[in-house]
Design a protein that fits this description.
The protein has helices spanning about 5, 10-20, 25-35, 35-40, 45-50, 55-65, 70-90, 110-130, 130-145, 155-170, 180-190, 205-215, 230-235, 260-275, 280-299, and strands at about 95-100, 100-105, 145-150, 175, 195-200, 220-225, 240. By secondary structure, it is of the alpha/beta class. The chain folds into two domains: about 5-90, Winged helix-like DNA-binding domain superfamily/Winged helix DNA-binding domain (Arc Repressor Mutant, subunit A, Orthogonal Bundle), CATH 1.10.10.10; about 130-295, 3-Layer(aba) Sandwich (Rossmann fold). β3 (about 145-150), α10 (about 155-170) and β4 form a beta-alpha-beta unit. Residues about 1-10 and about 90-95 have low confidence and may be disordered. Pfam families: HTH_6 (PF01418), SIS (PF01380).
Amino acid sequence: MTAQGIEDGNILQRISSKYRYLAPALRQIADLILGDPEECQTMTITQLAAAAGVAESSVSRFVREFGLVGYQDLRLRVAEAVFQSRSKGGEAGDQQVVYEGITRDDDIATIIAKIERSSQHAVRQTAARVDVDALTRAVDLIDRADSVIFCCMGSSAIAAENGVMRFMRAGKKCIFFRDQSGQIMAATNATERDVVIGISDSGHTTVVAQVLRLASEHGAATIALTSNENSPVCAHADVVLYTSSSAIGGGLYGESVTSKWGQILIVDMLYAAFAARNADAALAHLEETYTAAIQHTRS
């Protein structure tokens, strides 16, 4: 590749434009870098390879693919692209990112590719962060509980309502109030026979942290779903399950939809593990609730 070719656009733009032509392993690296360039610029080659789920040799191939002189050159160019993006954002404001990596100049095909890429990365990174022992302990708590109480705010309700529908159909009583006062009352009335699942991507949602604290004080088991280690919601959780940490959300752009893929994935894992453990009872409840629903829709 010529020096001129190297300079045509910053490295993030070049990775994005060449993405569809990359080999699968190189796409995984591209997903990671495009999904969270600020984090990637600080990683060693070993850390980047592990986070992308590829061998270090694949990272070296990726570097050569873009005509760079070594891994440190890649880190430098990513850092330059991040700085350039910040600088332009300060100067041009609304001409830069309008939603989760999408700019006003992106065409429809680019928007589709970016959304797909960020969603895939969120799912892949969440799966990589799941601790088997922690997930097993969470399923133990759900299995022993008489009822599962969900707590969250905003669009995290997507994951909570998915959990309610899954577990209710399998015979586990669930409670979820969208109103924060209802959530606080549910936590206050929780007992050692209940488990409370608090969902907060940032880990700083005040009502979620408060609900987990109240539930814990009343003897209930507590589970936190968050992307943020050592955040307030973790302080009162018996088990913490981590989602993707690279989603952009809050502030000007509103809540991250990408982050919800990780939350839904964790809830599905909890349900699948619970249903597999209680297969006979779960299948019986699934059949019963399905029959009841069909009869209701036909009446």
